[in-house]
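Input record (one chain):
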Amino acid sequence: MNSPAKLSSFDLDRIGGLKALHALVSEILAAGDEAKVLFAQGVAERAEIKPDRSPVTEADRRVEARLRAYCAHHFPSIAFLGEEGEKESAIMGKMRFVVDPIDGTRAFIRGIPTWSVLLGLEVEGEPMLGIAYLPAMEEIFVAYRGGGALGNGRPLRVSSVDDLAQALVCHGALQQFYGAGCASALASIEASTFTQRGFSDFDGYRHVLLGRADAMVDPGVQPWDLCAPSVLIEEAGGRFSDWQGKASIHSGKALASNGRVHDALLQGLSQA
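The corresponding structure, as predicted from the sequence alone:
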């Protein structure tokens, strides 16, 4: 397997320092809380289906528009890629915000509280900053390279399980495995681990961050699903890669773990 990429640190002065980071976090909190208000007003009942068969609501569009406008005003030199907006096929410039306005729209629609607002920052293609806010659960996760990871202001650390046979592994939606043509990965995970639990979207990464689970296996994902979680996981002491062991958020498949069971999981996933 490929060895983990050597991670660099991020100089917060490139975005205006800690003050700018705190202001950005505050804006994400406000955007997520706006989504809660929109849910209470019934936007979930008016959800639409996009061409890729995934749902979208007014909350998705409003949160993304709000964050896009905020970033354009406060960080005019930084590009912006959002799930619901215009899709840039390549990284524009040296820095780019990567945003999923409502990660877990299906959960949002059904009133399941695990949906989140995700914002990451890429610098020359490498994720450097990650923020995840779960408004319905009042949980906020923040990390940047070299700065550690915090959950509601407290340091985060992944689990210490080092035997795959004792590992609890989270996985994304079953339809993603079948849709990506890698259903055999499910059998590999089931045969090699202690137990498995379905926690889709950021919620699966959240359990790894909190040390409750030892890995998250996620097929059929996009950069906006992964930019923020990848930084959070690694700054909490874990490891993030695609299923071939490459430290990339652009491969369509992700594995996040405590680092100790990563290579053992890759042995099965790389064949799926």
